[in-house]
Write a structure and sequence with these properties.
45% of the residues lie in helices and 16% in strands. It is an alpha/beta fold. A 5-stranded mixed sheet has the order 5-4-3-6-7. The longest helix is centred in the N-terminal third of the chain and has 40 residues. The protein is globular.
Length: 201
């Protein structure tokens, strides 16, 4: 009885297929590990902040602002007029946001800088809770607009709060920070962006 000439090649092809399936998870893991390694290398060697998310809005005009005031705060509404012609930090915050609480002392210190105006977008918050938050921690804002349904945050491309945007006097977005400010991001990110904006104005 003659042997089937196709039998051995089929077996070999089946074996190769099994190897490919077995090695696929290892290949995926290697890709992920490589990307993570590059991020750590960039952070450690080049000092790159891997938590900063680039924004398509950088270098473009800021979205229009027309938000109602936070009632009871005695602050004006957040409109285009509130930031026009000023170097402004637009900070998106909420009382329920723990990192917002962490960065608030830094915002209070920044508010003492006469070169900078700080305004707030109160994101998906309750009015009484926002007032309590500001009453407890202090108010660094010259204007606050409420964004109860998050529409303004969508317009600004907010990923998560806190989030801050440095807007030039001409309305151009110059810098974006995702997450809370800390001494390092203040020194290496925001302050150089402020100095650069002031030098070019």
């Amino acid at each position: 009885m003659s042997a089937d000439p196709d039998r051995k090649p089929q077996s070999r092809r089946g074996g190769v297929g099994r190897y490919v399936v077995a090695l696929a998870p290892l290949a995926v893991f290697a890709i992920i590990a490589g990307a993570a390694g590059k991020m750590l290398y960039d952070q450690d060697v080049h000092g790159k902040n891997v938590t900063e998310i680039p924004s398509a809005l950088l270098g473009t005009k800021a979205p229009s602002l027309s938000l109602p005031p936070l009632e009871g705060s005695d602050l004006p509404a957040l409109t285009d007029a509130a930031i026009q012609g000023r170097l402004t930090l637009v900070n998106v915050f909420a009382s329920w946001c723990v990192p917002c609480r962490d960065e608030h002392p830094i915002l209070k210190e920044l508010a003492k800088d006469p070169r900078l105006t700080i305004v707030g977008i109160n994101y998906k918050d309750r009015n009484d809770n926002a007032l309590r938050f500001l009453g407890e921690l202090g108010n660094p804002y010259s204007a606050i607009g409420v964004d109860p349904n998050g529409k303004a945050a969508i317009d600004w491309g907010v990923y998560g709060i806190p989030e801050s945007y440095l807007v030039g006097p001409d309305g151009t977005i110059l810098y974006k920070k995702v997450g809370p400010f800390d001494p390092i991001s203040l020194k290496e990110g925001l302050m150089p962006a402020i100095e650069k904006a002031l030098a070019s104005s």
